[in-house]
Amino acid sequence: MPLPATHGAGSIPNPAHPTMPTPPPSSAPSSPRTAVLWCNLGSPDAPTAPAVRRYLSQFLHDHRVVEIPRAIWCLILHGIILRVRPAKSAAKYASIWLAEGSPLKVWTARQAALLDARLAARGHRVTVRDAMRYANPAIGDRLDTLQAEGVDRVLVLQAYPQYSATTTASVIDAVTAWTQRRRRLPEIRFVNDYHDDPAYIEALAQGVEAWWAVHGRPDQLVMSFHGIPARNIALGDPYQSQCLRTAQLLADRLQLSADQHRVTFQSRFGRAKWLEPYTEPTLRALGAAGVGRVDVMCPGFPSDCLETLEEIAMEGREAFLHAGGKTFHFIPCMNDSAVWIDAMTGLAERHLAGWDTQASNAPPTVDGALAQRLRDGTPPLSIESDGTVF
Ligand SMILES: C=CC1=C(C)c2cc3[nH]c(cc4nc(cc5[nH]c(cc1n2)c(C)c5CCC(=O)O)C(CCC(=O)O)=C4C)c(C)c3C=C
Ligand SMILES: [Fe+2]
Ligand SMILES: [Fe+2]
């Protein structure tokens, strides 16, 4: 168990326990303060071409996202993409924008607030903050604020259930870039993925079941994941196999046979080969083949965003119906569903384990009480069967 910092009081002898330094007075912040940083991709600050250009420039300069040699890529990026794409993407963002901002940011902030409340209700003294890899609120700014608030332990959780270097490693890069600019560092933990976490699978399944309870069942359930370049898989990215595992676990949980579901990959960017089968051509093929109803869900996206609300729920629907399909449903992402917040809580608690996060007014756990005893310089006398320490 890590011992807490002594805040400079170490030179005063402690008569009760000579080998221990005297702890600070109990009113002082004697135990480390812990935060969870709930990180997502980020959105432009506004659905306008200039804001989208700034966002895309930061996003598409990330070496984790585009691995083409810089000199060539910068020519393409500045010469074509950042001239053409911002206006087109801004119109798409405008079609899904909420009064409070981008759906991705609104849901991510809400998830952070709900996780904060749930952890507090379970007796943890933990601050939860949302942070975005691109645009705002930036990861570095959030870490600065947390540190100014006295936080010295940070658990980095990401809104990417499946690991990819393009997303997960990029968030880790942003956090470690911040650490390189700071002298006094908090303890930091990262979670790489939770693609097979039973509570995550259960949250996905219950979202589907709730939808089907109201709207009936489809002929086909399409599970659409964000794509990445096929080359990344050949270079060792585990993303594809984690997506396929998530999909299989979900299909098993929903008791779907092989002909009742399929996996596709969406959001192809550029001309290179990405993970296949691609979502939109698949929807067109299903419509043309006379499949009456498809339901599409996006298990890799905990929050609805441009890629689900516009690309799937609008463009995907249009592609399927135009090709001859009869009925199209988009099943919303988990967003703020209670079962998803439960899954996030379990994930956070598992990875916070060993850090003393017990609030002073909460019933002490064995770990928490032992830590307090060590801080006070008093050895624990006995541990009751219910975990109470005297
Ligand atoms: C699983 C999550 C994601 C992976 C993997 C991912 C890889 C990836 N994305 C691009 C390019 C773009 N993605 C864009 C939007 C976007 N991407 C994700 C998630 C993953 N991306 C989300 C949640 C969003 C939506 C953000 C929002 O504001 O709602 C965009 C911007 C939109 C646009 O202009 O079309 C681009 C560009 C690449 C190149 C890539 C892997 C190599
Ligand atoms: Fe550049
Ligand atoms: Fe993306």
From TrEMBL:
Q: What is its EC number?
A: 4.98.1.1
Residues engaged in binding Fe(2+): 226, 307
Q: Where does the record place it? A: Cytoplasm
Q: Which Gene3D superfamilies match?
A: 3.40.50.1400
Q: What class of enzyme is it?
A: lyase
Q: Does the keyword Zinc-finger apply?
A: no
Per the record, the pathway is: Porphyrin-containing compound metabolism; protoheme biosynthesis; protoheme from protoporphyrin-IX: step 1/1
Where along the chain is composition biased (Pro residues)? 15-27
Asked if the record carries the keyword Metal-binding, the reply is yes
The molecular function terms in GO held by this entry are: ferrochelatase activity
**UniProtKB keywords:** Cytoplasm, Heme biosynthesis, Iron, Lyase, Metal-binding, Porphyrin biosynthesis
The record's region (Disordered) falls at 1-33
| InterPro entries per record | Ferrochelatase, Ferrochelatase_AS, Ferrochelatase_C, Ferrochelatase_N
Give the chief site where it resides.
cytoplasm
Q: Name one Pfam family in it.
A: Ferrochelatase
Which reactions does this protein catalyse? Fe-coproporphyrin III + 2 H(+) = coproporphyrin III + Fe(2+); heme b + 2 H(+) = protoporphyrin IX + Fe(2+)
Q: Summarize the protein's role.
A: Catalyzes the ferrous insertion into protoporphyrin IX.
Family stated for the protein in its record: Belongs to the ferrochelatase family.
Annotated protein name in UniProt = Ferrochelatase
Species of provenance: Variovorax ginsengisoli
